[in-house]
């Protein structure tokens, strides 16, 4: 990143940095660019691509529909039922 880019970003983001802060930001991005250049210089053509550093095993259960309860079992505790539904007292008249 150069100083002109930083100044335009300040304007767009409504920031006002001091000269010392600008120098610190520019030094930070210069270091990042150096680090990226060092990483890009490494030959990784024989390295297998990976998503995670550690092997991850995701255990997924089989997606099978099961009815755990019947409607009658669920309605045993209902004070009143009508046509297979819980019947509750009317709250608003």
Question: What would a concise description of this structure say?
Answer:
The chain has 93 residues and is mostly helical. The chain contains 3 helices and 2 strands.
What can you tell me about this protein's structure?
It is built from three helices and two strands, in the order αααββ. The chain has a two-stranded antiparallel sheet with strand order 1-2. The mean pLDDT is 90. Helix content is 39%, strand content 4%. It is mostly helical and 93 residues long.
**Total count of helical runs of at least 4 residues:** 3
Structure summary, number of beta strands: 2
Biggest β-sheet description: 2 strands, antiparallel
Strand content: under 5%
- Mean pLDDT, nearest integer? 90
Using only C-alpha atoms, the radius of gyration works out to 32 Å
Cα distance spanning the termini: 69 Å
Strand order of the largest sheet: 1-2
What's the shape? elongated
Structural class: mainly alpha
Note the topology.
Layout: H1 3-12, H2 19-40, H3 71-74, E1 81-82, E2 85-86
Antiparallel strand pairs: 1-2
Keywords:
two-stranded antiparallel ribbon
